[in-house]
Design goal:
Layout lengths: L1 H21 L12 H10 L9 H6 L1 H17 L3 E2 L2 E2 L2 H29 L5 H14 L5 H10 L5 H10 L4 H17 L7 H23 L5 H21 L4 H15 L3 H8 L3 H14 L9 H26 L19 H13 L3 H31 L15 E4 L6 E4 L4 H6 L32
Length: 462
């Protein structure tokens, strides 16, 4: 009975969150990375208040696998695209390279630290642990960057650059995750297939089912049929990869990229599935927080501190690289990397995925490192990014709170609603119409003249 009430509570929270947070997250309400739900899940979990037991959490593992796969599909559909359109090849390659570099630095630091603090772990467990933490700490969440840009109305080359890099750095961590998952089937025996072949199989499953979805979607976009195609192919992708112990997140992400690149209805598909991201993400963050067990082993907290320190240093180095290769960031300070410290949905999804696939020491360590990086980045990333954009002159220093809009307008494709400033009535009246026709009343009124003063009679009569 408790499990039923918990499920109803999660569904209710996701429904409320879709209204309170989902529609306004990019406008500056709520926390950009959703870390408040991670903390709430931790407080309700077995380690803190104990309102949710471990046996109850195990019942939601299949649902969590499906939710994680769906989130990766949504991320794949938007990979390489920003609000201004498709991200250029140079920035796309830079974003992927930076995420791989940051993940490699964090993974090496964790691998070395695990030999000191967790000597009881075997060589393969240490390798999977290092790959998992590197994957979870390699990205910069696009939600936090868009949150700052939208809330403070940042417009300029630097804001566009950081937004593009955040929209194109998810591939690197997911590739690292795919390699880590591929180590498990190779270690479990059976088919003697190398790790890189298992990784290629994971990518191949995503590409194959993505092409099938493109064919089934056809030339005519139909809403109900499209939902059936996306749900059916995504569930098949998740089930196939889970059956072989591979990474469902990498496979569904590749599937989303394939659909976005091969279907002529990408805009309609993104507009259809984008509203589902936040409602699905909130229960995932709650479940991830409930799975946190920071004191389950004595080496968990030291490894989390090492991973956080390595991430900060790696992001600072990534910022220096961006300053050197991108003219738009040449005038920024050396703290550019601190503005890219925010991580959230993808990091916590990978942490929860590792916790479900490798229950115990490895999964607990990866999930804890992802949660620590997310909470820390929540306090440092948006503040640093706001400071950088203000120094670059891309944020107006008059007020940090945007004025309340008076009217709304839709974009030409109908996919986004944006604010429009009211047009003064005087400008409307003074605007000439085609053909030389003028509106009545456009002639300016003469300035009011001062009336002559009439002397008052001496007898006081009016």
């Amino acid at each position: 009975m408790n499990e039923v009430w918990l499920l109803m509570g999660l569904l209710l929270l996701s429904y409320i969150g879709s209204f309170l947070v989902g529609g306004h997250a990019l406008r500056g309400y709520g926390l950009p990375s959703g870390s408040e739900f991670v903390v709430l899940g931790f407080a309700l979990g077995p380690f803190a208040l104990g309102l949710v037991e471990r046996s109850t959490l195990s019942m939601f593992e299949p649902v969590a696998d499906v939710a994680l796969g769906w989130l990766a599909l949504v991320v794949g559909l938007g990979f390489g695209f920003s609000k201004e359109g498709r991200v250029g090849p140079a920035r796309l390659a830079l974003g992927v390279g930076l995420s791989l570099g940051v993940g490699a630095v964090v993974g090496i630091a964790v691998w070395v630290a695990s030999g000191i603090f967790a000597s009881e772990l075997g060589a393969r467990e240490r390798t999977v642990l290092a790959l998992g933490v590197g994957a979870a700490c390699g990205e910069t969440t696009r939600h936090a960057v868009a949150w700052v840009v939208e809330r403070y109305r940042a417009r300029g080359q630097l804001a566009s650059l950081i937004d593009d890099l955040a929209d194109s750095d998810d591939l690197g961590p997911l590739l690292i995750m795919g390699v880590a998952f591929a180590l498990a089937p190779a270690a479990e025996g059976g088919l003697s297939i190398p790790v890189y072949v298992w990784t290629a199989i994971t990518i191949g499953i995503g590409v194959a089912l993505g092409l099938i979805a493109v064919v089934l979607l056809g030339s005519d976009f139909r809403l109900i049929q499209s939902w059936g195609v996306l749900l059916g192919t995504s569930l098949l992708t998740i089930g196939t990869t889970a059956r072989f112990g591979l990474s469902p997140l990498l496979a569904t992400f590749v599937m989303g990229v394939t659909i976005a690149g091969g279907s002529q209805h990408r805009g309609e598909i993104v507009a259809m599935v984008a509203p589902t991201e936040r409602p699905v993400l909130l229960p995932v963050l709650l479940l991830a927080g409930a799975h946190l067990r920071p004191l389950e082993a004595p080496y968990l907290l030291p490894l989390a501190c090492v991973a956080l320190a390595a991430r900060v240093l790696a992001k600072v180095g990534a910022g220096l690289v961006v300053r050197r290769v991108c003219p738009a960031a040449g005038a920024t300070t050396a703290t550019l990397g601190l503005g890219m410290l925010s991580c959230g949905a993808v990091a916590m999804s990978m942490g929860l995925g590792f916790s479900l696939r490798f229950p115990g020491k490895v999964g607990d360590a990866v999930l804890l490192c992802a949660a620590v990086a997310t909470v820390f980045g929540e306090f440092v990333g948006p503040v640093s990014l706001r400071s950088l954009l203000r120094k670059a002159g891309e944020i107006a220093a008059v007020s940090e709170v945007p004025p309340r809009p008076s009217r709304w307008s839709a974009s030409p494709d109908g996919a986004r609603i944006s604010e429009v400033s009211p047009i003064p009535a005087a400008d409307v009246l003074a605007t000439p119409l085609p053909g030389g026709v003028s509106l009545p009343g456009t002639t300016p009124l003469p300035a009011p003249q001062k009336l002559p003063t009439i002397p008052r009679p001496e007898d006081g009569s009016p």
